[in-house]
Amino acid sequence: MAIKTTAITILSMMLLASVSYGQTSKNNKAMKHELPALPYATDALEPAISKETMELHWGKHLQTYINNLNNLVQGTKFENADIETISKEADGAIYNNGAQAWNHKFYFDTFSPNPKKAPTGKLAEAINSTYGSFEKFKEEFEKQGAGLFGSGWVWLSKDKNGKLVITQESNAGNPLRQGYTPLLGLDVWEHAYYVDYRNRRADHLKKVWDVIDWAVIEKRF
Ligand code: MN
User: Fold this and answer.
1) Which of 206, 212, 34, 192 is nearest to 117 (CA)?
2) Which numeric CATH code is attached to 2-108?
3) Which fold would CATH assign to domain 121-220?
4) Ligand 1 centre from 3 Cα, in Å?
5) Spans of all domains in the chain
6) Mean of the per-residue pLDDT values for the chain?
7) Ligand 1 center from residue 12 Cα (angstroms)
8) Omega cis (within 30) before 119
9) Gap from CA of 199 to ligand 1 centroid (Å)
10) I need a surface site. Which of 63, 77, 159, 209 has the fewest CB within 10 A?
11) What are phi and psi of 193, to 5 degrees?
12) How far is ligand 1, taken at its centre, from the CA of residue 5, in Å?
């Protein structure tokens, strides 16, 4: 029994050591941000989002934001901050890369190969009372996404009074900065759709509803 307990204790210590090693770099105490795992295979969202786009978007673009962030935060007051705090408080390059890290995890977590295709319950009620219907909401969201000039994001959020709002944000912008609760964020940077849809951003936005999981968005609401 004693031997077994000791073995378990040693195993736990090894496990703890490996966990903390994963989050901490060897030379300083800075937290190391890592590429978040995808909750599905890279080809799981086809044809709405191709495997090639996922490999580039998740595997290359997001990895670059995370690498940049890890380099930039060293020796700053953000070296142990999580990406939500960085999104709310940082400026300049740390903000750009930290907010993009936050936005992309939020974005990739929204999708599923077997999504709940429409909201129900309280979220459905809020969408209907704000936009008239789910179809009208989708039209408005697509319009804001297609109409955003340059690179950025279109968001559905809950504002401080609990009201639904659609906002456009340039570059890495997200609604955390305004104290909103983000519910859905779609990336309208060209890297999100150009491989699959070329210049047709509006077509991408129309098609991407096929893989958006409203069960996830209901939980955020
Ligand atoms: Mn992106």
Assistant:
1) 212
2) 1.10.287.990
3) minor pseudopilin epsh fold (3.55.40)
4) 51
5) 2-108, 121-220
6) 90
7) 38
8) no
9) 16
10) 77
11) -140, -10
12) 48
